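Budget justification aside, the reviewers requested a transparent look at the raw inputs and outputs of the sequence design task funded under Objective 1. We therefore reproduce one unedited record. The lines immediately below are the C-alpha cells for a 255-residue chain.
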C-alpha cells in the first residue's frame, strides 16, 4: 500500500506541470507590453510599435491611418494587452500549483521545520521569484517570447523546465529517504505504524490541496485563452486586409 501511494504521488509530482489542453496556436514574435505602448519583437528588434491606442510604427516609421483603421488597430492591440498578461498568469499559476504539491508532501512527511523542508522551501521561493521576473518585470510590464502552445508547458521551456524537473525529482528522493528512515527507526512500535501514518498524511494532503479541481480550473483558463487568441486572429486578418503595411504581419498563427 505504501509503495503504491508513493508511486502515485511521484507520478503526480512529475506531471504536475502538464496542465495544458492542446491549443493549436503559435505566437510568431515576441511581445512586450508597457503602460504606454506595445512592441512586437522580431529577431531581437522592434518590428511593430503601437503607442497609446492607435499610433502605429513599423520599423520605426509612423504609418498614417484612417479613423476606421485606427479603430481596428485599437481593438486588436487592446486584445493583445489583455491576453499576454493572462498567459503569464496561467504559466505562473500552473508552476505554483505543482510546487505546492511537492512542498506540502515534504512538509507532511519530514515536518515543516525540518532541514529538508526548509531547503526545499528556499528553492521554491527563489524559483517562483525568478519565473515572475522573467515574464512580469513590473505590475504593468510583461514580456513573452515566440511560443508554440500545442503544449502549454513550452511557455516554461528552456530556462526553467530542467530546474523544475530537478527539484521535483530530488523531492521524490527526499520522500523515499524519509520513509526509509521511518521504517528502520527504533522509536516506533512496529515497522508498519510509521509508514501507515505517512500514507495517511499523504492522503490528507491530497484532500487539502484539492489538486484535481485546481488543475481543472487552470485547464479551463487555458481553453478560454486559446479561444480568445483565435478571435484575435480573425481581427489580425482584418488588419492584414485593411492596412497594406501590415499585410505580412502574422503574430497569431492558428494551425
Amino acid at each position: 500500500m505504501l509503495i503504491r501511494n508513493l508511486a502515485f504521488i511521484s507520478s503526480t509530482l512529475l506531471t504536475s506541470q502538464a496542465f495544458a489542453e492542446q491549443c493549436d496556436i503559435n505566437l510568431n514574435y515576441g511581445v512586450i507590453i508597457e503602460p504606454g505602448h506595445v512592441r512586437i519583437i522580431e529577431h531581437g528588434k522592434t518590428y511593430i510599435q503601437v503607442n497609446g491606442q492607435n499610433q502605429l510604427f513599423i520599423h520605426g516609421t509612423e504609418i498614417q491611418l484612417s479613423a476606421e483603421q485606427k479603430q481596428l488597430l485599437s481593438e486588436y492591440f487592446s486584445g493583445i494587452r489583455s491576453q499576454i498578461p493572462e498567459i503569464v498568469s496561467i504559466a505562473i499559476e500552473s508552476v505554483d500549483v505543482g510546487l505546492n504539491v511537492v512542498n506540502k508532501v515534504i512538509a507532511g512527511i519530514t515536518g515543516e521545520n525540518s532541514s529538508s523542508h526548509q531547503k526545499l522551501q528556499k528553492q521554491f521561493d527563489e524559483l517562483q521569484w525568478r519565473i515572475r521576473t522573467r515574464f512580469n518585470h513590473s505590475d504593468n510590464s510583461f514580456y513573452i517570447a515566440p511560443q508554440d502552445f500545442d503544449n502549454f508547458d513550452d511557455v516554461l521551456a528552456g530556462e526553467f523546465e530542467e530546474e523544475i524537473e530537478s527539484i521535483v525529482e530530488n523531492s521524490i528522493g527526499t520522500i523515499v529517504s524519509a520513509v526509509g528512515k521511518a521504517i528502520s527507526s527504533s522509536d516506533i512500535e512496529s515497522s508498519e505504524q510509521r509508514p501507515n501514518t505517512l500514507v495517511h498524511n499523504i492522503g490528507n494532503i491530497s484532500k487539502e490541496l484539492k489538486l484535481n479541481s485546481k488543475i481543472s480550473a487552470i485547464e479551463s483558463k487555458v481553453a478560454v485563452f486559446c479561444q480568445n487568441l483565435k478571435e484575435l486572429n480573425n481581427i489580425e486578418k482584418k488588419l492584414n486586409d485593411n492596412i497594406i503595411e501590415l499585410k505580412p504581419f502574422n503574430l497569431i498563427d492558428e494551425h
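Helices lie at 2-14, 67-110, 115-135, 161-184, 193-209, 211-242. The CA atoms of residues 77 and 247 lie 16 Å apart. Computational costs for records of this kind are itemized in the attached budget.
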